């Protein structure tokens, strides 16, 4: 029996897949738990429309990420931090502070988890941060840490 999976089912398939399963498995397990529906023409058509819409959203997100990467590439943000003896900072500059500086200075709203530093920033100076915007799309920015 062909069924359209409405949720991910371990060992069977992912949501939106059309799979061939035994009649008993479908009637006794998948249908009562609302994990699948019979794969009739309307259900298959609806699943194809959802897949194409998801592919379109993914494509537009990739285009927007490439545009943002071009705008961000080579930008410089300056962060002021408290400094102790020997130029060492009290704490460290993290992605959270860099994201806040980007929002304040350049009006870019970037998630802190997308910002990667080559090494932790514990002293004043100039550093490079890599921002991953989408799969295969990233930008490098300069981070200047001052007293």
- Could you give the order of the helices and strands? EEHEHEEHEEEE
Report, as a whole number of angstroms, the end-to-end distance.
69 Å
- The tally of strands reads 9
| Order of strands across the main sheet | 4-9-8-6
Mean pLDDT: 91
| Beta-strand content bin | 25-35%
Question: Which regions have little confidence, pLDDT < 50, spanning 5+ residues?
Answer: none
Number of helical segments?
A: 3
Structural class: alpha+beta
Q: Biggest sheet, in brief?
A: 4 strands, mixed
Q: So what's the overall shape?
A: elongated
Amount of helix:
25-40%
Any idea what the radius of gyration is? Answer: 24 Å
Task: Report what the structure shows.
35% of the residues lie in helices and 32% in strands. It is an alpha+beta fold. The strands form three sheets. The protein has a four-stranded mixed beta sheet with strand order 4-9-8-6. The protein has a three-stranded antiparallel beta sheet with strand order 2-1-3, with helices on one face. A hairpin with a 2-residue loop joins strand 8 (125-134) and strand 9. The longest helix has 32 residues, at 41-72. The radius of gyration is 24 Å and the shape is elongated. The termini are far apart.
